[in-house]
Amino acid sequence: MSITAQKLNFVYNAKSPFAKHALKNVDLHVESGEFVAIVGHTGSGKTTFVQHLNALIRVQSGSLVVDNHDLSSKKLNLKALRGSVGMVFQYPEYQLFADTVLQDVCFGPKNFGVSKEQSEVLAKEALALVGLGEDVYNKSPFDLSGGEKRRVALAGVLAMKPTTLVLDEPTAGLDPRGKKEILSLVKRLNKEQGITVVMVSHDMDEVFENADRVVVFKDGEIVYDLPPSQLFQNEQELVAMNLELPQMARVLNVLRQNGIVLQGDLRTVDDVANALQNLKGGDC
Questions:
Q1: Are 120 and 126 in contact (CB under 8 A)?
Q2: Dist CA 130 CA 189 (whole Å)
Q3: Domains in the chain with CATH codes
Q4: Parallel, antiparallel, or unpaired for β 69-70 and 61-66?
Q5: pLDDT tens column, 41-70
Q6: Average pLDDT over the chain, rounded to whole?
């Protein structure tokens, strides 16, 4: 399901000497099934924006519709909204609390009134989606590796059957293998399950390799909304906003500056290497 924000504004400590305009007339549309990355330096408004998506922050002015829920309505059904919009915070494993993995993942559905039996069915389905099987059901979540804990926390959200997944720095604190596992999982959920993904990240390599679109916030406003291949050609402007360029974007920019323009949606080292090999073969 889609997300549409129009003229969305938010002011912290409104009507006080400490007022801070965090969002300024934000217009953004995310189609169902897209993978959109939200980036920007600290204080840019990106976190304030995504916290609106499941009403952790309520709309002050403007409009926001998420999965057919009008978030500016005084009659907003929070339970229904939070069932369809799953929010995964930074370090979600810190929210694990139950004695066993299965109990932890069951908590969300049970809290929404689903029977114990059906909650277990949903929990097992969600654990399977994140690549965890029966061998972890009765383990303490605190005995798992960092990457496994992150997957259990994600399963707890997926057990609610969300149509939209909002992720705030989903790979923070993980080792390279854990990061790769989580991003592969999120991308698979997006492409195979059709779940709309909105991901906040400071890691531009992750953004470049995975997102369909990148939305850049600065001082509460959207300054760019482009596919990664187009966005990261604006090298000087992005560096001025303290945003690092992905390694592969740097390579492509250097090649382009030297008259070598590679065709296709190139995201990884292998993509670029194959494109160069094909170019060389064509020239020969």
A1: no
A2: 9
A3: 3-245 (3.40.50.300)
A4: antiparallel
A5: 999 999 999 999 999 999 999 999 999 999
A6: 92
